[in-house]
Amino acid sequence: MNRRLFWKLCLGVALGSVALFWVIARLSGQAEEQMSFIDAEHQRTLREYGAQAEVLYRAGDEKALREWLQTLQQQEQTWAAIIDPQLHALAGSELSERFMREFSLGRDPSWKIHLYFQENPIMDVPFADGQLRFLIQLPQRMRPGHYWYPARLLLELVLPLVLLVCGCLLLYRHLMQPLRRLEQATRQFSEGDYTARAGALLGSRRDELAGVAETFDAMAERIGGLIIDQRQRLAEMSHELRTPLARIEMAVSLAEQGGDTAALLPRIRQDCSAMRRLVEDALTLSWLETERPTLRDETLDLTDLLDSILDDARFEYPDRQIETQLPAEAELVGSCHRALGQAIENIVRNALDHTPPGKKVWVELQAEAQSYRLDIIDQGPGVPSQWLERIFQPFERVSGDRPGFGLGLALAQRQIGAIGGRLAATNHEQGGLCMTIWLPRPGDTT
């Protein structure tokens, strides 16, 4: 996954943060720019003040001009004056200490006002001749930016908070959407829908959460398969046990009615042994499929193991011939004597069961490049080609001349797989079934 979700979140948070800072700075700059100019109505008022001062000055009524300036200063609670090019105050007006200290002309009413300065600027309205000037310190009521601090609070606190909450909601939705679908699949699976999968609900998503969904799907696939197989296995075992149990009940009934106990006891013992083998094989098969163990902790000689198994087979089936072609020795490293021996014994027994009396079973062991190949060929009727894979399923039975395989071949395939080998079935060209086992030789890493 290369941590796609991590990089996606990092990229989203980084770009979102940069975009947030840029938007705040942009909006703050625009708001400050728009709030830094005197209102158009106040600009007209300042220019009207300048025009009135010029009219009074041109009329030559210095007393009226002085009274007007005093009235204006009292009315606006500010300072105002008329000066000539040599910065001399006229009409009884006085220059303020601030003006004398800064020794500069004022600002035009249309100029930008810096909102961060505590003192109001001095505004400059020139007369028509361009020589005399009307100066007035901007009245407080005309100062722009009355809403600057609330706007700044809104832009620097409320807006980031809202945007961050929106971003968190997007991230939450991005993370919770697959988690909710995973929860949905988990709930469906827990309610018995073993076909429920989370990957299909996530679509084309390919990140860590998709990896969690894939892991869940793999788990659901295995657990669902195990549950279904166990249910089917239990049903099939129940079916298989009915026949020997029925025979045992019949034998017990006959014994209770005074039948020949000596003749009935061997029948009961035989059926009990068959049920015991069935249960043991079923439990072993269930353990191999559920736990999937790796049985590769022993070193053995495959030739010696085959000799022992075939000696027992010749004793049990004296009316069949067993021909062999075995090397003097065949060392197996990382194997399991019990599992491999039971698997080969089941295959050999199966071959002998389906070989007619007087016929033979051929056992050949040869070394290949990376493995040992063991062929067990019978002279039975073989199986239809479509059954060559199905005979390794538990309780599968072939219709026709080949009556069935029970658990033997299914158990053998799982046992050979647990020691790193492989089992396959083919119909031999001269008739009969050929069971082939490949076992890794020493040094083979497969």
TrEMBL record:
<protein>
    <recommendedName>
        <fullName>histidine kinase</fullName>
        <ecNumber>2.7.13.3</ecNumber>
    </recommendedName>
</protein>
<dbReference type="InterPro" id="IPR036890">
    <property type="entry name" value="HATPase_C_sf"/>
</dbReference>
<dbReference type="Pfam" id="PF00512">
    <property type="entry name" value="HisKA"/>
</dbReference>
<dbReference type="InterPro" id="IPR003661">
    <property type="entry name" value="HisK_dim/P_dom"/>
</dbReference>
<keyword id="KW-0547">Nucleotide-binding</keyword>
<dbReference type="InterPro" id="IPR004358">
    <property type="entry name" value="Sig_transdc_His_kin-like_C"/>
</dbReference>
<keyword id="KW-0808">Transferase</keyword>
<keyword id="KW-0597">Phosphoprotein</keyword>
<feature type="domain" description="HAMP">
    <location>
        <begin position="173"/>
        <end position="228"/>
    </location>
</feature>
<dbReference type="InterPro" id="IPR005467">
    <property type="entry name" value="His_kinase_dom"/>
</dbReference>
<dbReference type="GO" id="GO:0005886">
    <property type="term" value="C:plasma membrane"/>
</dbReference>
<dbReference type="Pfam" id="PF00672">
    <property type="entry name" value="HAMP"/>
</dbReference>
<feature type="transmembrane region" description="Helical">
    <location>
        <begin position="147"/>
        <end position="172"/>
    </location>
</feature>
<feature type="domain" description="Histidine kinase">
    <location>
        <begin position="236"/>
        <end position="443"/>
    </location>
</feature>
<keyword id="KW-0067">ATP-binding</keyword>
<keyword id="KW-0472">Membrane</keyword>
<dbReference type="InterPro" id="IPR003660">
    <property type="entry name" value="HAMP_dom"/>
</dbReference>
<keyword id="KW-0418">Kinase</keyword>
<dbReference type="InterPro" id="IPR050980">
    <property type="entry name" value="2C_sensor_his_kinase"/>
</dbReference>
<keyword id="KW-1133">Transmembrane helix</keyword>
<dbReference type="InterPro" id="IPR003594">
    <property type="entry name" value="HATPase_dom"/>
</dbReference>
<dbReference type="InterPro" id="IPR038428">
    <property type="entry name" value="HK_sensor_dom_sf"/>
</dbReference>
<dbReference type="GO" id="GO:0005524">
    <property type="term" value="F:ATP binding"/>
</dbReference>
<keyword id="KW-1003">Cell membrane</keyword>
<dbReference type="InterPro" id="IPR031930">
    <property type="entry name" value="HK_sensor"/>
</dbReference>
<keyword id="KW-0812">Transmembrane</keyword>
<dbReference type="GO" id="GO:0000155">
    <property type="term" value="F:phosphorelay sensor kinase activity"/>
</dbReference>
<dbReference type="InterPro" id="IPR036097">
    <property type="entry name" value="HisK_dim/P_sf"/>
</dbReference>
<dbReference type="Pfam" id="PF02518">
    <property type="entry name" value="HATPase_c"/>
</dbReference>
<dbReference type="Pfam" id="PF16750">
    <property type="entry name" value="HK_sensor"/>
</dbReference>
